[in-house]
Design a protein that fits this description.
Layout (H helix, E strand, L loop, with lengths): L6 H9 L1 H12 L12 H9 L13 E12 L4 E4 L14 H8 L1 E4 L5 E11 L11 E9 L6 H4 L5 E9 L5 E8 L6 H7 L14 E5 L2 E7 L6 E9 L8 E10 L1
Antiparallel strand pairs: 1-4, 2-3, 2-7, 4-5, 5-11, 6-10, 7-9, 8-9, 10-11
Helix pairs in contact: 2-3
GO biological process, one term: reproductive system development
Organism: Papaver nudicaule
Protein name: F-box protein
Length: about 260
């Protein structure tokens, strides 16, 4: 509307892509970064704020509700995925991703596409998770690179999520917690504040999910009803069919047992 008011505004608003880069950085509340992007910033802005989420493209029949959490920035290609907060004293390593998840509930995922990532909370119907005995719903921390919805491989459906491992807890759980962090910034003060779940999680009895975003990561926590445990799945989407292709989206789903 502003661009239609006069030629100067039209040129500034519709043709100066730096305006939309500033708008993205401002509204996503991420740091200004030097990396080049593959699309115009006006396209990235629209894909981030037009109300789209990943289940609009696939599995719409499984989707119940969603909530935008916010955006964070990955400037290294290694990310920590965990279903445990606070973190273990020592990060996992030296084993396969699947083995690390099964034994510690955490893993290091490499070759993640750097840049701005957008995080959402998704509520979906079971059995998306392959557990046929579950008739309820499960929550998913859904994170994607800002360019994902504009890429041809994603829009055509040739890229899909693959399970990288799972974490099965056969005991009552009071809360479900998951997080994704840039391993380069785990000791930064904003990250350590997120690790202190008691400082931002909901009070006992309040089952409304709570999320906390930091400059280089995101965490999600939900108090749980009576249960016999928790089944956590870790999935990644890669920009290609090769196992070493860049990771462009991550999902961590949690299902009550």
């Amino acid at each position: 509307m502003l661009g239609s008011s006069c030629r100067w505004f039209r040129h500034t608003i519709l043709e100066q892509d730096s305006v939309w880069k500033y708008a993205c950085v401002r509204d996503l509340q991420v740091p200004l970064f030097p990396q080049q992007v593959s699309f115009k910033w006006i396209q990235l802005y629209l894909s981030a704020f037009d109300g789209s989420h990943s289940y609009l493209f696939r599995q719409q029949d499984k989707h119940i509700d969603w909530m935008k959490i916010g955006a964070f920035f990955l400037d290294s290609s290694a990310g920590l995925l965990t279903a445990k907060l606070p973190l273990l004293p020592r990060l996992p390593g030296g084993e396969s991703v699947e083995k690390m998840l099964q034994t510690t509930g955490s893993c290091i995922l490499n070759n993640i596409k750097t840049g701005v990532w957008i995080a959402d909370l998704q509520l979906v119907r079971c059995p998306v998770c392959n557990l046929d005995t579950c008739e309820g719903i499960m929550q998913t921390l859904d994170a994607r690179h800002i360019e994902l919805f504009l890429t041809e491989g994603y829009k055509s459906g040739s890229w899909d999520y693959k399970e990288i491992g799972s974490y099965d807890i056969r005991d009552h759980m009071d809360k479900a917690t998951v997080a994704i962090f840039d391993t380069k910034h785990l000791k930064d003060r904003p990250a350590t504040e997120v690790f202190d779940v008691k400082a931002w999680a909901a009070k006992p009895g309040d089952c409304k999910p709570r999320a906390r975003i930091a400059c280089h990561g995101v965490a999600l926590n939900t108090n749980l009803q009576e249960n016999d445990g928790l089944y956590v799945r870790f999935l990644a989407m890669r920009a290609g069919k090769e196992d070493d292709s860049e990771v462009v989206s991550i999902r961590i789903s949690q299902q009550l047992l």
